[in-house]
Amino acid sequence: MKLSIPLKDIMIAPGKRFDPAEYTEQDVITRIKKLYGVIAEVMDIVIDGGMAHIEFRDATPEKFAEAMKKLAKGVDEAGKSRLPEALKLFQEVLAVIPENVAARRNMAKVYLEQGKLEKAKQHLQECLQIDPKDAWSYVMLGNIYVNNEGNLDVAAFYYEKCLEHHPKDAMVLTNYAGLMTQKREFQKAEILFKKAIKIQDVPNAYYGLALLYQMAGEVDASKSVLETMFVRIPQQTLPREYEGIYAEAQNLYRELSKEKKH
Question: Mind giving me the DSSP string for 162-196?
C-alpha cells in the first residue's frame, strides 16, 4: 500500500500541525517515524516536494484475507457489546495490516466505550497520520474534545480540518454547527446548519437549527424548520439511529406550540 501525504497535514499534537520548514529531509523522516510509532517498522518513507510518500510492506494475500475476516468479525462483536473480544480481533488485524484505518478506528471506538479516552485519542490520531482525509476520525476526535474534555477550540480544529477535505459532508457540518452554538457563535452556526440541510436532509441539522431559533426567541422560525423537517423526512423512513433525535424534535415542536398559545 502506498500513500502520499502533504507534510502540512501531519499533526504532532492535538490541534497542532507539523512544520517541516526548518528540518532536513532526514529529520523529517525521523520525526514522521516517531509519530507513527510501531507502524514505522513496516513502512518506507521518501520526502519530495512537500509530500511524504509512504509505502507499507504488504502482508501475503492469505494473511491479508484472514485479517479482513477478523475485521468484519470484530465489528460484529463490537456491535453486540462484546468489547474485549472485538478489541482482540482488531489487534490481530493490526498485527498483520498495521496501516488499516478501519481496524484502528474501530479499536478507538471500543476504547471510547470502555472510557479509555487517551487510548481512543491515540488510535484516532494514528488513523489521521495514515489517512489525513479520514472523516470519521476527525469527527470522533472533535466529539471527544467537546463531550469528554470540554475543549471547544481543539474540537473546532478537528472539524475544520475535516471540512477542508470533506466540505460537503452534512454530518460534519452539523456537528461543527452544534459546536459553534456552544461557543455562542450563533450566526456561523446558522450558516452551517443551513448548508448541511441544503446538502442532505439530516434530522440533526433541522433540530439544531430549530433549537438555535428557539434560543433567539424566534418561535415561528423554529416551528417552521421543524415542520419542514417533518414533511421532508417522514418518520417511517428514518433509520433507527435517528429515532432519538426525531423524538426530541417532536417534543420541541409541542413545546413551541404551547409557547405560541401563551
Answer: HHHH-TT-HHHHHHHHHHHHHTT-HHHHHHHHHHH
Give whole-number Cα distances, 153 to 183, 211, 245, in Å. Answer: 9, 22, 26
Rg (CA), the chain: 21
Q: Yes or no: say if 5 and 26 are a contact pair by the CB < 8 Å rule.
A: no
DSSP 202: -
What class is the 168-262 domain?
mainly alpha
Q: Which is it for the CA torsion 168, 152, 104, 107, positive or negative?
A: negative
pTM: 0.72
The ranges of the chain annotated as CATH 1.25.40.10 are 168-262
Q: Which residues of 74-83 are buried (b: 16+ CB within 10 A; e: fewer)?
A: bbebbeeeee
Q: What is the pLDDT along the chain (262 residues), one digit of tens a residue?
A: 676 777 777 766 666 666 767 667 777 777 777 766 555 665 677 788 777 787 766 667 888 899 999 999 999 999 999 999 999 999 999 888 888 899 999 999 999 999 999 999 989 988 888 888 899 999 999 999 999 999 999 999 999 999 999 999 999 999 999 999 999 999 999 999 999 999 999 899 999 999 999 999 999 999 999 999 999 999 888 888 888 999 999 999 999 988 766 5
Which residue type is seen at 222?
S
Task: Give the span between the Cα atoms of 186 and 22, in whole angstroms.
Answer: 40
Q: What letter does residue 5 receive in the DSSP assignment?
A: E
| Cell numbers placing 161 | 480540518
